[in-house]
Specification:
alpha/beta, 5 domains, six-stranded mixed sheet, 13 strands, lyase, Threonine synthase, EC 4.2.3.1, amino-acid biosynthesis, threonine synthase activity
Length: 501
């Protein structure tokens, strides 16, 4: 539709113009820094950064109900730059001209209600947000769209000439970074660092296919991250992990889309997200805070962060009930089926602490919680969800296990509705499903298959008849016999009765 086809009160706001007063804001010393540089930590105190619009309150000039109409009608525009996360341009990158926006199809992923039987099993109304339907098959594309749009703007403005994008990854970040970098070739190239032997074959194939330089490092993600930080501090490269504050901005779109999908009524909503490097839960909190501050949503949803007991530094921090006595301590991780959770020292932890406090204060009560689940629970609930017609990765299984745990602890009530983050496509982690079915998990995972969830193909062979495998062609009576006998054998195994003789 064309802008002239929309209501008069919406028309002036449909196509946003660049604006705002954007700065890097340090969470350690509160210093601000120019955004037209590639900064990842504060030059003054080395703390992590958030991006802040110092003129954010200008958005109050538009009432909350009108903002809702703007975003709802904007979905109908045929403008590529506004089809993805920049549908919410004013809240993500207000100073960015639309011609700099890189859109590869990310954003707008569906919120799908779980099957009635699964909801009955869990005991609460729940939905999955299938972020595996982003272009690189994970939620990381939201942040990459923001970060690479900013890089594209700096290239178009002549502030940068060429960029080497680097990241550490457990799989999804590298796939996303390599994809977006490849789109901006030749001025942008990419290199990714992966922990050797700890990335699924499917995930490894993605950056290789997009032409990235792929380096495998002995150790875990935290070790790769240290190397990437060394590179970013001493060489002319662009760091694309969630230490990059532009990544957080793009991932805020997850909150905005959920608000829109529930008609901006968030009073009884609970959002469940897995915690890895803590960028996603940071973005979810900040996104909802922005919408609440302007009056676009009527309440701050509960947020449940979930960690595996194989890597739970955020859970350990919030396990202490007295905020004054909380001390963050990195942990040594063990292998996890939720590979992005294998992070013992999440870079966004200072952001989590600051924003969780701000979130609870704005809500007037505690609304951010963290729970811990086992590897066994993650696999069992992932397979249970998918057996009920959902598309859930291991991290989605972690979210579902976290919801069940939160419900058992009384954090979630019968009156709540839950949206669970399935961060990637289930096919990226199909090797873990196969290990489960074959009872092939190494002992340190602590996963024992539930026979009721195990599945395997059945070879159908009928003795005494010719088959297509016996010769190049099978026809006539032999083919008729093969088809009839094979169908009878399958029907027998399924307990079917013949309706025709």
């Amino acid at each position: 539709m064309n802008p002239s086809d929309f209501p008069c009160d919406v028309q002036p706001h449909l196509v946003p113009r660049p604006g705002g007063d954007m700065v890097y804001k340090c969470l350690g010393c509160d210093a601000t820094h120019d955004i037209n540089t590639l900064l990842y930590t504060c030059p003054s105190c080395n703390s992590v950064l958030l991006i802040e619009d110092r003129d954010f309150d200008r958005h109050r000039a538009i009432p909350g109900p009108l903002w809702r109409k703007i975003f709802d009608f904007r979905k109908s525009l045929n403008i590529p730059a506004l089809k993805g996360v920049y549908r919410f341009h004013e809240f993500i990158g207000p100073d960015l001209p639309l011609e700099a926006v890189v859109w590869l199809g990310e954003g707008g992923t569906p919120v799908v209600e779980a099957s009635p039987l699964l909801q009955q099993k869990v005991g609460i109304r729940l939905f999955f947000k299938n972020d595996g339907q982003n272009p690189s098959a994970s939620f990381k594309d939201r942040g990459m769209a923001s970060a690479f749009s900013r890089i594209n703007f700096l290239l178009q403005s002549g502030i940068l000439s060429n960029v080497l994008a680097v990241c550490a990854s457990t799989g999804d970040t590298s796939a996303s970074a390599a994809l977006y970098a490849a789109y901006l070739k030749p001025r942008v190239t990419s290199a990714v660092l992966l922990p050797h032997g700890k990335v699924t074959p499917q995930q490894l194939s993605q950056p290789l296919g997009n032409g990235a330089a792929v380096f495998e490092i002995a150790g875990v993600f935290d070790d790769c991250m240290k190397v990437v930080e060394e590179l970013s501090e001493n060489y002319n490269v662009a760091l694309l992990n969630s230490k990059n504050a532009w990544r957080i901005l793009g991932q805020e779109s997850y909150s905005y889309e959920i608000a829109q999908d529930f008609s901006y009524d968030t009073r009884n909503l609970t959002v469940v997200v897995p915690i890895g490097n803590a960028g996603n839960i940071t973005a979810v909190m900040n996104g909802f805070l922005k919408f609440f501050r302007i009056g676009i949503i009527n309440a701050l949803p509960k947020i449940i962060g979930v960690q595996s007991d194989h890597a739970s530094p955020v859970f350990q921090y919030y396990r202490e009930p007295d905020p004054a006595r909380r001390r963050f301590a990195p942990v040594t991780v063990k292998p996890s089926v939720a590979q992005a959770a294998m992070i013992g020292n999440p870079v966004s932890m200072p952001r989590v602490i600051r924003l969780a406090d701000r979130y609870d204060q704005a809500a007037g009560q505690r609304r951010v919680f963290v729970v811990e689940v086992s590897e066994q629970q993650i696999m069992d609930w992932q397979l249970t969800a998918n057996r009920h017609g959902n598309i859930v990765c291991t991290h989605g299984g972690e979210s579902l296990a976290g919801l069940v745990t939160a419900r058992q602890q009384g954090l979630v009530t019968d009156d709540d509705m839950a949206v669970l983050d399935s961060t990637a496509h289930m096919l990226k982690f199909s090797n873990f499903q196969q290990m489960y079915f074959e009872n092939a998990f190494p002992a340190h995972y602590g996963v024992t298959p539930d026979p009721a969830l195990v599945n395997a193909p059945q070879l159908v062979e009928v003795p005494g008849i010719a088959t297509p495998a016996d010769r190049e062609t099978l026809s006539g009576p032999e083919m008729t016999t093969f088809v009839r006998k094979t169908a009878d054998e399958i029907a027998n195994r399924l307990g079917l009765k013949r309706t025709k003789q």
